[in-house]
Structure formats: C-alpha cells, structure tokens
Please model this.
Amino acid sequence: MSMAGNLRKVTSLGRVGGLRKVARLARRRPRVDLSHPARSPLGSSVVNCVTYRDGVRVPVGGDLVDAVEGVRKSRDGFVWLGLHEPTDQEFAGIAELFDLHPLAVEDAVEAHQRPKLEHYDETLFAVFKTVCYVEHEELTATSEVVNTGEIMLFVGHDFVITVRHGRHGSLGPLREELESAPQQLAKGPAAVLHAIADHVVDDYLNVTDSVQEDIDEVETAVFAETGARVDPGRIYQLKRELLELKRAVMPLSRPLEELATRPIRVVDPEIQAYFRDVSDHLLRAKEQIAAFDELLNSILQAHLAQVTVAQNEDMRKITACAAIIAVPTMVCGVYGMNFEHMPELHWQYGYGMVIGLISITCLALYRGFRRIGWL
Model:
C-alpha cells in the first residue's frame, strides 16, 4: 500500500471515534500516494505527508492512518502532514484522527487569524502571518506592496500538521532544508515549529528591506529640486501597506516570547534557545517597521509643507500682479468718470502724462516685488 492513501475517505469520517475505526474504514478503498511534494492527484488539500525517524525521512507503506499507528506504536519519530486551504469536509477526518480541538480546527479552516499560540491538552496550536513583497515597476497610489497569508500549525508529541492559506509561503524548500540537517530534525516536531517560525520572521526582514527601497524612492522624489509635485496617494498607499505588514509582525512577539521562556510539553528545552534567536530577529523587524512609520509621517508632513509653501508663493505672485494691474485700473477709472471740470482732459500733454505715470508706477512696483522675491 502507498503512503497516506485514500485520505479523502478519512476526511469524510467526521465524528467516527477511535484510531482503529478510522484505520478500518480507510482501508476499504484503493489508496492514492500523497507523499509526493506535488499536490494530490485527487485534487485535495493535502500537499505532503511524511514520516521522520531520527531526523531521517522514512518510506512507510500504507496510508496516513498506518503511518500514525506505526509512530505511536514505536514511540519514535513523528508524522508531518502539510495541507493547503482545506475545507471543513477535508479536515474533519484529520481532526478526528489527531484529536484536534474544534476551536483550533475552526480557526485553521476559516483563516484570517491574528498570530497567536494556544494550548489544547497535549497539542500546541500556532498561527503565523506570512508576508511577501509584491514586485512593481513603479509605485503608484494603487500599487500592492505587501501580500499576506497564514500558516497554522498543530504540534503534538508525534505529529506536525501545517495548514497554509494564501498564494505564497510554500514550505517545500524549508522541508528540504530541514531534511538536509537530520540532527536538528531529530529533535522532534518542535524543530519543525522553530524552522517555520524562523522562516516566517526571515521573510519579514526581507520584505522590510524591499519596502525601504520604496520609501527611499518616495523620499527622494519629495525632496527633489525638479519642481515636480509628488502624488500624496503614493505616500498614503505605502502607509496602508506598512499597516498590513505591522498587523502581521507586531502580535507575534508574545507567542515567540512564550515559546522561548515558558515550559511547554511538546517543545524540547534545547529548542527554546533557538526561539530566543527568532525573537531577536522579530524585534529587529518591529524596530524597522516603527522607524518606517515615523519616516513616512515625516515625509508626508514635509510634502504637505512643500505644498503649502508652493501655494504661498503662488499667492504672492498673484498678489503682486494684482497690485501692478491696480495702478492703470485706478488711473483709467478716475479719468473715465466724465466730469466736465477736469483740467487734465483739455491739456495738450495730459494723455502722455497719464501713460507715463502709469508706466513708471507699474515699473517701480515690478522692480520692488522682484527685489523682495514675490515675482
């Protein structure tokens, strides 16, 4: 029999009790191999299912139930089951097989959870927010910069179940990296939990480095001396995307601190030291995000100040032009009142005098405004 076969039937068992009942029912139909890194040929949510002993991948005949039975009988090794966006029906049998708490199962299926760590008897349930940087040629007011997903983990003494949501965050490369270090993988399911936490936090740092390039680009555009005005929508969009990143990073501090300091049954004390290192990396990401937030606020304020200064300059120019135009308007208005007793109307040089007076006054105003920088 092939490894982890006919999981479809297992996931339809719902509330069937007992590992033996699950095993008997699962053997009634032909098995399908789900141990290959590719998705199941059945089109189910199962991505991978592997048994490890002493940190080494073990080829085991039979289905998922057989693998779990073998691990529990020998009390050696663990099963790593990976899923991608499972439905309620697909997850029901798995929850029954591993005796998972209904509240944790609901969170794993529904997704959209905050990063957290919860204890259910002998099972640890952890939620991590995954992030990835969305490449774009030019940052606009509608550009997507950060894309988020989720990874949920059920960790027991002899199993790890990873449930992934989102279009990114594949754990295939991480699994291969772990398999190349069997001495670390031999420490049990907690080693997988640490590796995933470290992988997620490293992605945070990579994304913050990429976001910094966008912020530098906007900052350069705001303080450039070209005279072109920056679209404030670009700054607001960066702040919105930074807020999405902050929602993924900030709540993870408490779960990592708990994993690094509190005694937990399924976490070996040797692994806790590694979680302290992950917590340090997370602190660096948090500090960068906080600095980015303050920097974007400063950039936005500087941009608004530049806009205000530019508007003031425009108003000064308009005011200066209006003052110059007011001179001929006033003089022509006086001599356009058509009074009979106005001496200048019948003077031979009256027209020339008025034109000269207007020209000299306007020229004086123009030079005065130029001297004080209004024109």
